[in-house]
Every structure is written in C-alpha cells, then in structure tokens.
Amino acid sequence: MKAELAEWHALLNKRRELMISPDYHCRTLSEGARGMLARGVIDAGEWFELAELVTAAYSFAVEERASELFHPASQYLVQDQGLARVGSCTRSVLAFDADRRSPLSITHGEDGKLHAYGGPAFSWLSGTIEGLTLVMENGRRFELVEVGRYIEGGVFVQTITDPESFRLLLDVIEHAQEDGAAVRAKHLQARAEVSVFCLCPACRDHFAKREECSRCEGRGFVDRVGQTRPSAAS
Ligand SMILES: [Zn+2]
Known about the structure:
The chain has 234 residues and is an alpha+beta fold. The chain has seven helices and eleven strands. It folds into three domains: 3-67, no CATH class; 74-148; 159-223, no CATH class. The chain is 38% helix and 27% strand. α3 (22-38) runs antiparallel to α4 (44-67). Residues 200, 202-203, 210, 213, 215-216, 220 line the site of zinc ion.
C-alpha cells in the first residue's frame, strides 16, 4: 500500500481522536481522501471506498457517544458504595474531597472508551468509566450522580428529579412545537436532557398512545437507565 494511503488508514483507526471529536476527525479524513484523489494517489473507485469507511466511522462514533451516560458538560457528585459524598466532577475533571490537588481527567482513551487519567499531565490511567460508575484500577467503585449541566451559552441548569416538573416541561415542549417555535422547542429539549427521566421509548409521549402505554403507565416518560438520583443527604 502507498505510504500516504497507509497513513490515512492509520488516522482512520485512531479511536481516541474519533471519539473525542467525530466531526473534526471525519472532516480531516474526508479532506485527506479528496487530496489523494486530486493528486492521483488513488482512483475514483478507491476514493469511494474510503468515503464509505469515513461514513461508517462517523456512524459508529455517534452511536457510541449516544450510548455513553457520562456527559462532559455535566456536574456530578462522586459517591462511594455507602452513598456518602467523596468528591465531585465538573467539566470532566474529577476530584476526591480528601485529595483535591490530585484530580482525574475523564476522557476517551486509545481504545475509544472513557477512562480516568491522573498524574501531573493526566497521563496515568487511573480508572475506567462504566455507565456512570468509576472503577478504579485498584477495584474501588464510585458512582457519579449528575446534579446539573452546562448547556448552550454556558448556562448551568440543575438536573430535573421531580416527575411533575418533568411532565410540565414535556407539555411546554409540545406547545412550542405546535406553535411552530422550533428554536424554543429545541432549547427546551436540551433542557429536558438534563434529568433523571427521559421520554418513554415505547409511546414517545404520543398523546393517543400514551394512555394505553404499559411501559410508562401513561406518564409519557420513564427513569433514565443507569442514572442515580441525587439523595437528599448530599
Ligand atoms: Zn409510554
């Protein structure tokens, strides 16, 4: 294989870069493939194959990221197995209360999965994020409980834990959509993302189906899987 093409494939396989910024990574790959076509390194048929690989990588990254419960813009309490607060995490930097000078950075590793890194330059692997559980290298486990998130424009909003507030928000979104206020509806939907609840996957809160829905028992929403509620004590 030509050196330039081999380099392109090496870049394609960089899971860490892909997962941290799928848009940027795939744009770089697309531009690289177009460049090789323009310079005659590859022909049109080969270019088409590369373009398909970029599309597949992008879909993979978007799906993977959608399945991740950890949100980089969220603020979390860190609880031990006894549900006691032992630390906090803001914008992907996690610090234990007992040792706030040695924080951990939560980011994607070479394997494309979320890990926690410590040390002076966050280069030491210290643990792994499984759902919203931090599993340290020594086997200790901690739960990350979302308390809020920085949304568009850097506004901090608290995680919605009250079912009635969430129901009300869904109704407001529905009205905004009916009024054709698309921007407002989108903004409110981003707000609804910051909650221990999510839209019922069975009826999607559709008025006609909701009443009969056994999954959400007519509420239109269900508990978000894997998310622990902030306890009153913390
Ligand atoms: Zn339902």
